[in-house]
Write a structure and sequence with these properties.
Layout lengths: L14 E3 L5 H7 L15 E9 L5 E7 L11
Parallel strand pairs: 1-2
Antiparallel strand pairs: 2-3
Bound molecules: zinc ion.
Zinc ion binds next to loops.
């Protein structure tokens, strides 16, 4: 493996700075990747909200997660 980026932690767990978003995090906010594991999956489901801060103030993004961990407290 030679990934240059770390898989982000659950983007819902903290407020992200829009200016410093990685492309991957942007995809998570747009529901194209799981907000928790960052996997791409056809079965992503609504998984709560992630929050960002930036020039527009605080924004809430309805993010999606894999079916396997819909609950924030659930096992991986
Ligand atoms: Zn996932």
């Amino acid at each position: 493996m030679s990934t240059t980026w770390q898989a982000a932690a659950d983007v819902r767990a903290r407020v992200l700075d829009l200016v410093r978003l990685t492309p991957e995090q942007g995809q998570q906010l747009n529901g194209r990747r799981c907000a928790r594991s960052s996997r791409t999956d056809d079965q992503l489901r609504p998984g709560g909200f992630a929050y960002t801060t930036g020039t527009g103030g605080h924004l809430a993004w309805p993010v999606r997660v894999c079916p396997g961990h819909m609950d924030t407290e659930g096992p991986q």
